[in-house]
Amino acid sequence: MTTPMRDHLGRSIIAVTGLGVVSALGRGVEENWAKLTSGVSGIHRIERFDTEGLRTTICGSVDFMTDRETSAVDLSYAMAEAAGSEAVTMAGFSDTDFGGPLFLAAPPVEMEWRSRLALDAMDGAEREEAGYERLLEIARKHPDRSIYHTTQCSRVSEMLADRLGTRGLPITLSTACASGASAIQLGVEAIRRGETTRAVCIGTDGSISQESLIRFSLLSALSTANEDPTKASKPFSKDRDGFVMAEGAGALVLESLESALARGVTVHGLILGCGERADDFHRTRSKPDGSPIIATIRAGIEDAGLTPQDIGYINAHGTSTPENDRMEATGLAAVFGDALATTPISSNKSMIGHTLTAAGAIEAVFSILSLREGILPPTINYDVPDPKIELDVVPNEARKADIRAVLSNSFGFGGQNACLVFGRAT
What is the H or E stretch that residue 113 is in? Predict the structure, then answer.
């Protein structure tokens, strides 16, 4: 039987030929998948910096790749490089001469507090200038260029492009918590348009700091269940009280199915559909009727040429915040109807925390692994069900399942919503 190379709209079918991941659970696909499916939590107490006076003192930081002096830009690069190199090598390409474009989801950056204080303490005529612009000007002239580099969002993609040998101008984007999924969508669309036969798509975020924790705390978004860090993230539970900030990186090598088969490499899964819709209701809240979330889910499934009944598993956005979990459940119920009762849905954020900019890419990796391995990761810490959210959350223990399609949701602050639909390779 001949394998079709085009989808229902005549576009190239997108194959995933390489995967890479770093999270609080560890480095690499094998370690992360083993711990994820065993229900292991990577959430821990913060030791990287002083937490005195902070309401939240726990996180999912990647401490095995950093120290107290590592900047957010340097850590974001290190994790992206590790995940990207793993994915490119798995796909059978040279990890120094990939030869395709790079699409990177990276956190928005600005000068970190310690750099601001150091520069502010400098003497000189620059001190007559005012505010943040004055500090940027000092940084531009400082002999240590790394200080200025920490203010440049494109710095990570520039270094990655050199390291991996990508082609063309690397694209850096930031669409809040949907960023990782957005980067993958850009890669999918580039291949569908015939601009390239392959692309590497990476999401990374190493921005846990005192400042970032304070900012999210001021939004009442973070969990304050500091007593037992491993129990703090509890998506869809009645006693959930906020998300746990985390770090990590996920990478996928995308390729036209025709190219992958011609090269004779392993196809780990397919990307069947992408959906995105904006929500202009509020900077941090969803529109009360859930219409943008509903439209995003429908768009992704329709782009894949599927129906809700074809989806065998949902990789939830599942942040563990009271409103987000409720709105996601509301949106899914509107799309899936009665079928939702028999469709398993789980959140790996219960184990790795919310990796923000990287989340969509990391969760894409886990979605592909669920399809390939026939195992659904659990939602751990599901001990107090929310009677207002009746879902099969794969509670506390992984489950074997023969699934052919996965929906992965990513809903970001600022109303930036993206959904990806993945299919099994065979």
Answer: helix 113-120
